[in-house]
């Protein structure tokens, strides 16, 4: 079993709700895709080459300010449950964790992580630098990722083309290699059925959305990851500015939708959020999806001031700790244990009870 | 499924919202009728999966000036365009040079551009490794400048390359 306490904040600092606009935005992620010019891309390289890449990056990472004290996780040497744990904490992609359909983890798959910044090695690209911040913090998250990119780039030879920019194994990431994502909670737009219009609008301005866990994941609990679709033809700052502007607009729409709900259907909305709270507080069995949806309802209730005395931070924590691997580890059982929904409900009840107790 | 307002047969994929005299109207069109009306979907690029682009590569209408022929395989990694079509991934950094012309075409469709406008790697790197990259960068720019007969730029690039080497 891996010891996540090795990480200063357990690798979940991003959910402490301390960042800007935390009532709507859970986290901001920046990812920069980079490859070493003297190695072939991941799909064509051998086990030996992946080890070389890992050794080369790890060595220079120790000379950087941001990864000097990095914790190293070799995914290829971890049990599935530990890999799943790192994935549920949003520290590694599904691909790196070997949780894709074929369920195989690639040799050399590694995460170096220190505080809010890390680098995935031997992912689709040799390096995936990533920063994860609490709340809506595009500039701060980018500044850190950019600093690490510069520090690593001074010590390694990155594959770069004068016309195409940073070269990646997939053309969808070439150029800046930058994918910026904002994980945002939009229950108001979902309830007012405005969400598809908003998402369609975002697609028309070059943005895309994904579910809670990024690429290929479904939307659960009304959480959407909004990110830039293109990586080439605009500078990093233009891409960030554009995404930032659009996210701010979506936040305005969400606030408006909430006001409309409170104005036009106050009784329905009040019933809905308290019902969600009641179920979480007293249910005896909860599937992950149901828990997510109920947490979404309570979060909305807290956001519009209907439910007092529940901290957003606690809701964020529940979001992570009720996931299968987290719950299984906490309970000391297998993640496919049949009574996991019962254990989940018990866990949620306990956390909510202590929250109420704490606040008197 | 929303049907096309024009032909009432095919699925509408383009939803055009117009505001005329403060009246908002939305017209739903299928791809064919939209094309006939000269409407292009700015979201079309973003919504179509990469696979469609790859499948369409090389099948588009012939260009007026044919692009230079790409080699069958990449000299460095042995990867071919066919491999790329199948996996969606390139084999190595040199594939970007080997298959430059078809890739440029793909990038235009994926990103609406072929030119990187972000941070330039060589500029920030003052180490031997960085200088190698910067020199390669300059050589490539020089080649392009000569190819496009921009001799003033070529002379400047050659001078910069000399200093570096």
Can you tell me about this structure?
The complex is a heterodimer of chains A (360) and B (165). Chain A has helices at 47-61, 80-88, 138-153, 187-191, 195-204, 236-264, 266-282, 288-303, 312-321, 324-331, 340-359, and strands at residues 25-34, 71-74, 110-114, 117-121, 127-134, 160-161, 165-166, 178-185, 207-210, 223-228. Chain A is of the alpha+beta class. Chain B is mostly helical and 165 residues long. A two-stranded antiparallel ribbon of chain B has the order 1-2. In chain B, strand 1 and strand 2 (23-29) form a beta hairpin. The longest helix of chain B is centred in the last third of the chain and has 20 residues, at 128-147. At the A-B interface, helix 3, strand 6, strand 7, helix 5 and helix 6 of A face helix 5, helix 6 and helix 7 of B.
Question: In summary, what is this structure?
Answer:
The complex is a heterodimer of chains A (360) and B (165). Chain A is an alpha+beta fold and 360 residues long.
Largest sheet strand order of chain B: 1-2
Helical content of chain B, roughly? 40-55%
Portion of residues within helices of chain A? 40-55%
Beta-strand percentage range of chain B: 5-15%
Largest sheet of chain A: 8 strands, antiparallel
Largest interface: A-B, 51 and 49 residues
Shape of chain B: elongated
Amino-to-carboxy terminus distance of chain B: 62 Å
- Count of individual helical segments of chain A: 11
**Spatial shape of chain A:** globular
């Amino acid at each position: 079993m891996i010891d996540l306490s090795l990480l200063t904040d357990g690798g979940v600092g991003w959910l402490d709700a301390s960042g800007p606009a935390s009532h709507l935005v859970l986290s901001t992620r920046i990812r920069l895709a980079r490859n070493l010019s003297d190695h072939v891309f991941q799909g064509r390289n051998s086990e030996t080459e992946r080890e070389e890449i890992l050794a080369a990056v790890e060595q220079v990472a120790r000379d950087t300010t941001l990864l000097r004290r990095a914790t190293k996780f070799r995914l290829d040497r971890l049990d599935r449950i530990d890999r799943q744990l790192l994935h549920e904490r949003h520290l590694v992609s599904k691909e790196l964790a070997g949780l894709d359909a074929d369920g195989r983890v690639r040799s050399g798959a590694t995460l170096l992580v220190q505080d809010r910044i890390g680098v995935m090695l031997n992912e689709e690209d040799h390096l995936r630098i990533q920063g994860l911040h609490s709340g809506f913090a595009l500039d701060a998250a980018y500044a850190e990722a950019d600093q690490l990119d510069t520090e690593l780039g001074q010590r390694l030879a990155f594959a770069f083309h004068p016309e195409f920019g940073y070269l990646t194994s997939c053309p969808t990431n070439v150029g800046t290699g930058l994918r910026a994502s904002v994980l945002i909670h939009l229950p108001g737009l979902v309830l007012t059925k405005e969400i598809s219009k908003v998402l369609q609008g975002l697609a028309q301005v070059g943005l895309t959305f994904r579910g809670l866990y990024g690429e290929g994941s479904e939307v659960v609990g009304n959480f959407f990851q909004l990110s830039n679709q293109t990586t080439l033809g605009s500078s990093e700052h233009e891409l960030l500015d554009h995404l930032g502007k659009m996210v701010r607009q979506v936040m305005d729409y969400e606030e408006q939708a909430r006001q409309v709900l409170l104005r036009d259907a106050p009784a329905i909305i009040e019933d809905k959020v308290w019902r969600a709270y009641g179920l979480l507080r007293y249910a005896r069995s909860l599937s992950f999806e149901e828990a997510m949806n109920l947490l979404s309802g309570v979060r909305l209730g807290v956001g519009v001031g209907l439910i007092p005395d529940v901290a957003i931070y606690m809701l964020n924590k529940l979001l992570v700790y009720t996931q299968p691997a987290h719950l299984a580890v906490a309970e000391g059982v297998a993640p496919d244990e049949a009574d996991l929904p019962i254990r989940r409900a018990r866990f949620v009840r306990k956390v909510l009870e202590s929250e109420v107790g704490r606040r008197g | 499924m929303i049907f096309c307002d024009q032909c009432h047969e095919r699925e509408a994929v383009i939803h055009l919202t117009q505001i005329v005299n403060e009246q908002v109207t939305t017209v739903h069109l299928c791809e064919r009728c939209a094309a006939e009306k000269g409407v292009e979907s700015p979201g079309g690029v973003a919504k179509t999966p990469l696979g469609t682009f790859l499948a369409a590569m090389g099948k588009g209408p012939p260009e007026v000036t044919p692009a230079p022929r790409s080699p069958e395989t990449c000299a460095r990694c042995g990867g071919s365009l066919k491999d790329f079509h199948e996996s969606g991934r390139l084999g190595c950094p040199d594939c970007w040079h080997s298959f430059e012309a078809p890739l440029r075409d793909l990038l235009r469709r994926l990103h609406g551009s072929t030119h990187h406008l972000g941070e330039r790697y060589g500029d920030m790197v003052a180490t031997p490794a960085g200088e190698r990259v910067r020199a390669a960068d300059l050589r490539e720019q020089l080649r392009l400048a000569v190819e496009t007969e921009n001799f003033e730029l070529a002379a400047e690039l050659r001078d910069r390359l000399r200093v570096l080497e």
